[in-house]
Amino acid sequence: MTNGQVIQGDKGNTTDAGTRVPLIARWSGKVPAGKVCSELVDFSDFVPTFAELTGASPSEGMILDGQSFLPQLQGRKGKPREWIFCHYDPKWLGRKEAVRFVRDKRWKLYDNGDLFDVPADTLEQNPNPSGSEAASARKRLRAILNSIQ
């Protein structure tokens, strides 16, 4: 159930129903029980988080794209991520091309130019909404997507 709508399946697709998953953490005495945080977390954030948690430093010359979400795990104010990136290349689905997108909490822009207002269109059935907010989101997210090789 998402936003009052029953969604069956969709794993293996790049809609919110297929890519959004809960991150559940349990660490008695360190992670507050029952707290919900709605911040964005990207796969690239795990290494910096574990490094901060353990006090480890990245190897010399190692470039980390992610940022630690340890403060948020501990119920403290952190530096929330503004956007996440996904490169999905499911050969097993018979697709010939990879799918890439960047998104923030509201907007999602695919490499092919399709923009979605995710909370309003979870299954991504109405691409490219109009209006100044959509135009601004498209411009901002396109710049991010273009910067990622």
Short overview:
The chain is of the alpha+beta class and 149 residues long. The protein has 2 domains: 14-81, no CATH class; 82-149, no CATH class.
Task: List the keywords.
149 residues; alpha+beta; four-stranded antiparallel beta sheet; 4 helices; 22% helix; globular
What does this structure look like?
There is one protein chain. This protein has 149 residues and is of the alpha+beta class. The chain has 2 domains: 14-81, no CATH class; 82-149, no CATH class. The chain is built from 4 helices and 4 strands. The chain has helices at residues 16-19, 46-54, 70-73, 132-147; strands at residues 84-88, 99-103, 107-110, 115-117. A 4-stranded antiparallel beta sheet has the order 1-2-3-4, with helices on one face. A hairpin with a 4-residue loop joins β3 (107-110) and β4.
